[in-house]
Amino acid sequence: MSRRIRLGMVGGGNEAFIGAVHRIAARLDDRYELVAGALSSTPERARASGEALGLDPARSYDTFAAMAQREAQLEDGIEAVAIVTPNHVHYPAAQAFLTQGIHVICDKPLTSTLDDAKKLVAAAEKSDALFVLTHNYTGYPMIRQARAMVADGAIGKIRVVQVEYPQDWLTTPLEHEGLKQAEWRTDPERSGAGGCVGDIGTHAYNLAGFVTGLKGECLAADLHTFVEGRRVDDNVHVMLRYKGGARGMLWSSQVAPGNENALRLRVYGETGGLEWAQEDPNYLWHTPHGEPKRLLTRNGAGFTQPSTARIPPGHPEGYLEGFANLYAEAADLIEAKRAGQTPDHLLPTVQDGLAGVQFIDACVRSSRRNAAWVDL
Amino acid sequence: MSRRIRLGMVGGGNEAFIGAVHRIAARLDDRYELVAGALSSTPERARASGEALGLDPARSYDTFAAMAQREAQLEDGIEAVAIVTPNHVHYPAAQAFLTQGIHVICDKPLTSTLDDAKKLVAAAEKSDALFVLTHNYTGYPMIRQARAMVADGAIGKIRVVQVEYPQDWLTTPLEHEGLKQAEWRTDPERSGAGGCVGDIGTHAYNLAGFVTGLKGECLAADLHTFVEGRRVDDNVHVMLRYKGGARGMLWSSQVAPGNENALRLRVYGETGGLEWAQEDPNYLWHTPHGEPKRLLTRNGAGFTQPSTARIPPGHPEGYLEGFANLYAEAADLIEAKRAGQTPDHLLPTVQDGLAGVQFIDACVRSSRRNAAWVDL
Amino acid sequence: MSRRIRLGMVGGGNEAFIGAVHRIAARLDDRYELVAGALSSTPERARASGEALGLDPARSYDTFAAMAQREAQLEDGIEAVAIVTPNHVHYPAAQAFLTQGIHVICDKPLTSTLDDAKKLVAAAEKSDALFVLTHNYTGYPMIRQARAMVADGAIGKIRVVQVEYPQDWLTTPLEHEGLKQAEWRTDPERSGAGGCVGDIGTHAYNLAGFVTGLKGECLAADLHTFVEGRRVDDNVHVMLRYKGGARGMLWSSQVAPGNENALRLRVYGETGGLEWAQEDPNYLWHTPHGEPKRLLTRNGAGFTQPSTARIPPGHPEGYLEGFANLYAEAADLIEAKRAGQTPDHLLPTVQDGLAGVQFIDACVRSSRRNAAWVDL
Amino acid sequence: MSRRIRLGMVGGGNEAFIGAVHRIAARLDDRYELVAGALSSTPERARASGEALGLDPARSYDTFAAMAQREAQLEDGIEAVAIVTPNHVHYPAAQAFLTQGIHVICDKPLTSTLDDAKKLVAAAEKSDALFVLTHNYTGYPMIRQARAMVADGAIGKIRVVQVEYPQDWLTTPLEHEGLKQAEWRTDPERSGAGGCVGDIGTHAYNLAGFVTGLKGECLAADLHTFVEGRRVDDNVHVMLRYKGGARGMLWSSQVAPGNENALRLRVYGETGGLEWAQEDPNYLWHTPHGEPKRLLTRNGAGFTQPSTARIPPGHPEGYLEGFANLYAEAADLIEAKRAGQTPDHLLPTVQDGLAGVQFIDACVRSSRRNAAWVDL
Fold it and tell me: InterPro entries from the entry (chains A, B, C, D) (predicted)?
């Protein structure tokens, strides 16, 4: 566990959402060390972001090209790079690092055009370096469980695949109100010809394939733009036929009020079904035909993918984040104390601890007296 | 963000569950650096665990006493220590570090006896260092939200507080089957007079107080041991009266089959209620009397605690762990490649990326042809 | 099926809620015919209610005493009577009919005082007639299923029984605002010494006993009145010890905002658990220890109580009411037509039917042309 | 309320499911009296079924034609007829009664062919009698609520309509195993060209139109038969375009294990959404964009359709069936007593009532003694 892989990052500067997610993900198991970055397409912002992350200024680059070239020459240069830019930068950036033999971990979708995608495949095949795409939903423990169950024949030959990924955040024309996340995602130059279909439809399609092992054969798609003036689709209806005979539907939308990130997969085979929802990800329904439904839980009875699951069943994975909040606030408090300040805080204190032990003591005392009332 | 606090750890060696959780929590926001440890009560195991974590051998101690003494003398000695041992060690360990002016982050319950708890309060008050207790459920975003809403009067003066924390893992006498986690928790010498009440009842009690701001006044408790031969309680029934007139019930159990970590809090006031369940932690029900129930979500509409929530609404907090699984597996693959191996893996590849772009392309082509079937 | 039992009713006049429910229940399976009534304690209201229900005026009585006496002498007098009055009338009314050998179907709780209850037991034992108490929750199919499973040993010897029945309708002092339902329920003269505990706490207690087969041994209760000026309890906290060693808690409340009729039972034994909620009554969780949870459904796989379940699984029992709404509205329309009127309505028409067949036809046409778009 | 409409029935003999449902629905509100029938296409079975239902033998007909003709001549002949046969009989039967001026209440789909449907429309238009189609899901209270909210503009102009109705009962070839329900539904001669699409797809399509008020414009459908040897479709994928610009998807299936009758409708407009599921029918989600989701309940706050809802909020509509089970079992017991038998039963008795009053009494006694333990 002790060696950490030297990691660089392209994109992911101050304002970006997904860059911070990649950094947390890299840090969670302590397997990576972020040592270099070209964190923004604007050099000034790139440098400011590097400083905020504590990068060595000499390794905070203005462009990914400069970074790829120089890091390849350093003895302790980066071994891998995370590419977290808008879609149209994926290909040139990945290409630059693959050429230098640096492993690439790249956000999805692969590229903004099919042409770029094919070129990137060629580049990856030519390079000795690894290429990993972060279709992150494939990393959920219950998705691994579902995939393993399908492969083991738990539901028989697959017939029907229903997958959907509705959101609501683009119900109104946010791209005209200065929201950067909305701007590039609705700009065909940066996101590609697909809007909603590229941003989240690909996640849904990938997930269905990952779990079922099926390849798509053909499809009929009805893309539509509901918000006036929007330049890409914001609602996606697709009928799918898979190789081998399965049929499916895919719905993704960014204009469905009340849906935050409601990715949901349902797969039905000749002898049973599986159902999973990303918003409640620690659970997987297994519905063997003719028997009661069963609810599988991460690390619970019947779970076979322990390597993907860090904590016991019943602790949702947010457990770690809740814990981390206390550590982060304790860090704030420690730093404040160092600076001679004593801010208000919500952390449990030694008095809270005393109250807890008093509670235990009172319970034991009361119970020993046949549940008499005792003071706390 | 760039400075990291130097952290030590007492307990949390190889076999322990909660030590790894504390380390992940400390790492998640990159605010701490683990640099020293006394990771087990057995010196050999302590050293082996230190090595596994990549600690400098000179700072991997046999005892917490040695660690406290020496680290206090180092120029770059630890600033804070996480204590994650069985309960009976909390007091002596905390005391050792507080005396040296080192901040303490300590697992709950505070101590195994009321006497120790009072001594620890005195030690904390005498020391200049901070003392933080990890009642980790208080760190969940929706719990912070609930507390803020109660304080803002969203449900009026509180009348009824129902809190429960059932588990099922001690339904059978696991402590006689060699499970270390079960052994110390059911040993009054190490856990204190309370079994279930100390281990999880305190979490429930603390959470109720954290959200409501109420102090307990008196209680009537019916502790019971259902599993034959068990030395501490495994089921806890308590009726509570709070200062100011509210009434409550608390149930915790470790023998309730089907309950993993089903901590659940329901609070009812004169004008409304709040309901939260740890196993579905990203949601909070608000039930204003005479209006439809409302479901609040982390980072969704009406959420006021952004500092505690790292990702957008609808991404359960397990999102980060799913992402981290990909990074961890990519690290495995990178290391394997370094070693000249090419293991099987489940990571999305450039071919998956191509398939995704082909999917987008096919959707756009089909849609442009009025949803005609097109090949993938 | 063809013979219908001649039924009378005491109470249940125009304003009453539960009388109408009893009449629907009696009619649902076409086993009863309502032929007589003493429908209100006020003679005028009694007669008006009888007329509204289409009773023969000669058999619409001013008092239950008159009704009992006369009906017993008629050749085709009532065979059974439903008593649906406030609690304090249960005993004298039941006594009057039992004495005459008329079967009694009586609402719960049995009486308003323990004294009356004992006298009623004596009267029932002396009479040759049957006495049935409508603890109606015992009639739910999944409750019958749960009882049968407990009896069959599906969860082993029972350890813990958690039952609760919170409501919110008395969060404010409705009894001072002229609501009749609230008035008599909060008047100790009519409801008895218990308020919430008598009205719904008894349902919870009865249900726990029905499913588990356990008898209570002793209890410790904390009844409380939160709403100022209320004369009976509105929140009930009870710890229970059952004969044979099981322990339990019971919570009932009428001041818990957001709870409509949230009766819920959870039972845990040595080898598994069962969980049921009245607001989602067609489902029963079975949690065998060490296996995934299973969701049993009414008439679904594993269900063994078909005599209690009229419709297929997946049709909630509200299915019948939805159907009945169409029949009721069709009756309105038929009567309106008879009166020469043509009111607006929401019933599906022959045009809707045509649209449906056109939909089928279009689906078939489109599918035969490889899912080409076709007009509807 | 006192006048009851004279009703006849075509189909619905002993083995049929839906006939019994229609009879219960007709009886629930006491608005109809069943007085005539042609209950089966087999004369013997028709007569046996009539006897079982207690029909006057003179009004239990061998054919619907005879029934239509004779009833029309009786002074107290039927005013309305319920047609609950397989689909191919709907047209000739309806036609026969409409011609005689008898109101028709007919099961869906309207007919088995488009041709018949058009002829039936003509017949209905020519007749003075009413024609009502039992698309029964339109009768659910929360569906009426949803329709009213859409009409009131609660979610703005509609954009996306997702409707689905999956079942699992035809996952295996039951029609070859002698199940009558499966036989006629998979026989194109009796059910029409559509299998799943006619049986339940029409329900889904009708429901979407009922709630949204939208008319379909065109559709692209992919019908498929998964079970070998089946003569009609058993899975239905449809993309829909509605007049006015909304888009939709419809999925119905009879081969989706784990789905009983999982009819579900989701509608999204410019300012909000509505979501309803038939298996949990007493609830309706309203998701105004940019605000927390709200859960509306039948007869709860904000509900505006009281005429469709017989019981208070929180009592699922199955409440009436649970109640009716007690009445039915009491009827059994009364009849058994008449016959001199004393069978076992599960009905609450006077002893249960005494136990309940003892419970209340014990609670009051304990509470008055500060929650001391008291014996039951």
Answer: Gfo/Idh/MocA-like_OxRdtase_N, Gfo/Idh/MocA_oxidoreduct, GFO_IDH_MocA-like_dom, NAD(P)-bd_dom_sf
